[in-house]
Design a protein that fits this description.
This protein is mostly helical and 71 residues long. The protein has three helices and two strands; from the N terminus they run αβαβα. The chain is elongated.
Length: 71
């Protein structure tokens, strides 16, 4: 399997893991996805697009990050 396919699969797994963690914390980022433009390059460098969320979700996310110490 080519390296770029592995990179894309790793990015997709990271998205799944992040979505599961957010769900467990009671949060949802509906636009969370793989950035298609970053995968369309000759040598893909997959980027994860966190998307958009409402103000309440952003505040809850910030609070969870602070509570977790960022680590």
């Amino acid at each position: 399997m080519p390296t770029e396919e592995l990179d894309i699969r790793a990015a997709e797994e990271a998205i799944r893991a992040l979505r599961e963690a957010l769900t467990a914390a009671g949060l949802s980022l509906p636009s969370l996805t793989l950035d298609s433009a970053s995968c369309a390059r000759e040598v893909p460098v997959p980027l994860i697009d966190l998307g958009r969320c409402d103000v309440g979700t952003a505040r809850r996310l910030a609070s969870l990050i602070r509570a977790g110490g960022g680590g």
